[in-house]
Amino acid sequence: MLIKSSKQVSRWRTPRRFPVSRNSGVSPVSRIEPGVTWPEPEGATRVQHLRVYRYEPDSGRNPRIDTYAIDRDQCGPMLLDALIKIKNEIDPTLTFRRSCREGVCGSCAMNIDGTNWLACIRSLDEINEPATVYPLNNMDVVKDLVGDQTHVLAQYQSIEPWLRSKTPTPTGERLQSPEERKRLDGDYECILCFCCTSGCPSHWWNGDRFLGPAILLQAHRWLVDSRDEATGERLDELKDPFKLYRCHTILNCTRTCPKGLNPGKKIAEIKLMIQQRRS
Predict the structure, then answer these.
(1) Torsion angle, CA of 174/259/54/131, rounded to 10 degrees?
(2) 3-class secondary structure, 71
(3) Is the pTM higher than 0.85?
(4) Which helix (H) or strand (E) element contains residue 70?
(5) Of all helices (H) and strands (E), which one includes residue 223?
(6) DSSP symbol at 234
(7) Which residues have a Cβ under 8 Å from the Cβ of 163 and sit 6 or more positions away?
(8) Nearest to 191 by CA among 247, 88, 86, 263
(9) pLDDT tens per residue, range 241-264
């Protein structure tokens, strides 16, 4: 459920425990079981083992961890190369997203050795032996390493991420000075991989109301764009106890951004803009 205003629901709720205790009512079907261990390639001198999360909700079976072994000398340098090799040569049922292979599209975001990152820019030299590969946290699993992004994309749409203007459309481009353009640095590079949102504890607990770091970073991008003419309206829409102010500056988002951005700083700047507008 996408909650657009905190007034829609009660501000008070029973806190959820973390980690989840065994008597918390969680379905036994959600517990991870040992999976298949695939044989090592013959004659390989440099073997990398990958322990990969496997889950197909429609099957009714529990999630499992399958262990694969790849020959480093017959594989590309990145983790995504290893996953593609597994799918092509070992287990064609393994499911994951990928597209550009250059750290541009954000499709292959996953949890690698406990850290959210892009598989296409995580070198095999940088991962553990054995390495663990899970889907992003805090997203329902569609299958294996594919998380359901329906909710976070609906939150993205809720901030209206397009130019909002009141003046007539010009016949040419809407021009910016170099200084105005520079204000977008640190915002426009976001590729919406949702590594930051998936790693944000505030979004784990209040994901139905808190927009999360990725969406708030995108909101900041439009707030500082000199061509946009709805800054006041955008700030009014964000001035909500949960939409914006559930950020507690934990900064997991900044630590796990594969593009080196700082969503925590941008969220703080939004709070400052709202405060300055009041005074």
Answers:
(1) 170
(2) strand
(3) yes
(4) strand 64-71
(5) helix 213-223
(6) H
(7) 174, 222, 225, 227, 228
(8) 263
(9) 899 999 999 999 999 999 999 999
